[in-house]
């Protein structure tokens, strides 16, 4: 069999990239669901009954926590406060027998949006992202304790992690 890496098919790559991004989001345990901004690069290696897809995707964080397990297309992007942006390099393997891609590996790097690039037309003040401190965790725990005490729920909730603090 001849093996060669070729540029991926432009007609199907966006769908394949979306599926690959959903696989990445399923494997993540904290943070926010990555949404697809654009496909920066895509190549495919076909060998016999399978193919390997090499993707470089530009991504934006959505408002959905990865714990929600929602698909990236069902999540909204914030227009009020800054979300991180970045790039994911993803490798998927698809066997022609199973016809479903499997995540082989990924590496994502994110950066916060620089404050001078943020624009919020309807915001009366500038929004600032703060570093999460122990004090913020305690405030969240107190708020959730009050919610548990005042709610008529059969289950109680506990703060697992504070992801982001906005001022």
Automatic annotation (TrEMBL):
Q: A Gene Ontology MF term for this entry?
A: zinc ion binding
What keywords sit in the KW lines?
Blood coagulation, Copper, Disulfide bond, Fibrinolysis, Glycoprotein, Hemostasis, Heparin-binding, Repeat, Secreted, Signal, Zinc
Short name of any one Pfam family annotated for the protein: Cystatin
Per UniProt, residues of the Cystatin domain are 13-92
InterPro entries on file: Cystatin_dom, Cystatin_sf, Kininogen_Fetuin_HRG
Q: What is its main location?
A: secreted
What does UniProt give as GO cellular component? blood microparticle
Reading the lineage from the top rank, the first entry is Eukaryota
A biological process (GO) annotation for this entry?
regulation of platelet activation
Q: Does the keyword Cell membrane apply?
A: no
Q: Where in the cell is it found?
A: Secreted
Q: What is this protein called?
A: Histidine-rich glycoprotein
| The gene coding this protein | Hrg
